[in-house]
Specification:
By secondary structure, the protein is mainly alpha-helical. Helices cover about 70% and strands about 10% of the residues. A three-stranded antiparallel β-sheet has the order 1-3-2. Helix 2 packs across helix 4 and helix 3 crosses helix 4. It is elongated.
């Protein structure tokens, strides 16, 4: 069991370091697009999950509603999103991604993929498949 604890400690450390490096590189990429990391997170969530209210975004992103309102205001000024009234309940306002927002997410994700590709250049296709397998196992068990 002590050997396993050592392995787990090493895995935890490496995962933390990898997350830090990806996050750091991601911030460098975002500087090219005049968008903050929290705006990017909100925009990416909307692209992946569809229209949401400010309250729903607040819950999903673990940010205060006032913070989400400010993010949405700035993204709206940059033509990344728009606020739309629900046809079922006019009191409900949802945030919808505009084409410019979709394009921004696509461009950023492509640059992030290029970074990962360069980082893993030494790995064979088989090694990458194994890496995907292990990350998938971790991801699946983390989502339960």
């Amino acid at each position: 069991m002590t050997h396993d604890k050592k392995n787990i400690s090493e895995i935890e450390l490496l995962l933390r370091q990898v997350c830090f490096q990806i996050k750091k590189n991601g911030r460098v990429i975002l500087e090219e697009f005049s968008i903050t990391p929290p705006q990017f997170d909100a925009l990416q969530y909307l692209v992946n999950c569809g229209e949401h209210t400010i309250s729903e975004l607040s819950t999903k992103l673990y940010l205060a509603p006032s913070t989400i309102t400010d993010l949405v205001d700035r993204m709206e000024k940059n033509d990344l999103v728009e606020r739309v009234r629900s046809t079922e309940d006019r009191r409900t306002v949802k945030v919808r991604v505009l084409p410019k927002g979709n394009k921004l997410i696509e461009e950023v994700i492509n640059l992030r993929r290029e970074y990962i590709d360069k980082t893993l250049i030494e790995l064979s296709s088989e090694d990458k498949e194994q890496f995907i397998k292990y990350l998938s196992i971790f991801n699946e068990s983390s989502n339960n």
